[in-house]
Amino acid sequence: MNPIIVYLHGFGSGPGSQKARFFRERLGELGVTLEVPDLAEGDFEGLTLTGQLGVAERAAAGRPVTLIGSSLGGYVAALYAARHPEVQRLLLLAPAFGFARRWSAALGPSLETWKRTGRLAVYHHASQQVRQIGYQLIEDGLRYEDYPDLAQPTLVFHGAQDTVVLPAWSEEFVRGRPNARLDLVDSDHELLTALETIWARGREFLLRTPNSF
Known about the structure:
There is one protein chain. By secondary structure, the chain is of the alpha/beta class. The protein has 8 helices and 8 strands; from the N terminus they run βαβαβαβααββαβαβα. Strands 2-1-3-4-7-8 form a 6-stranded parallel β-sheet, with helices on both faces. β3 (65-70), α3 (72-83) and β4 form a beta-alpha-beta unit. α2 (49-60) packs across α3.
């Protein structure tokens, strides 16, 4: 029986992202359907981690699932798995652990402006335009732990040249976790130049029987 696999895209991305299309095509060649929900549900300005976890829950629908998560979607996948033992395994791509805390620290004085006005202009990759994001993303995000304590087999791929989400954050996540493994690849945050490598190294993991690495 083929596994149920759900892909969670990154911040400012969407179901039509290049990585989502790549995994959908590769899995499709093996007769496996990849489900890719819109984590923003058409409301990017109102985006929250809680809302994205709700989308993941509706996509999983209580079924045993495998999760692939990219960047912020990787962090959401980890948060979801820590709360849902029916998740069987995770493949994470440059997961943005501690998203709200780390982005807040990186913004510096701009954070106060965002908090005061309630809106911040950011580039939205899926629509290829600048869009507004509400401050509730930070307020809500700070409620969640930086490193979810999940028990499922977890394979993390991270670009060694990633300057957006540092490889050290994934190294910290896998440290002391026998259920998690990190594979550093020669790429940046987008990981587009390493997709074939990731597929070659991660395909067997995605299709493996539950509860085994």
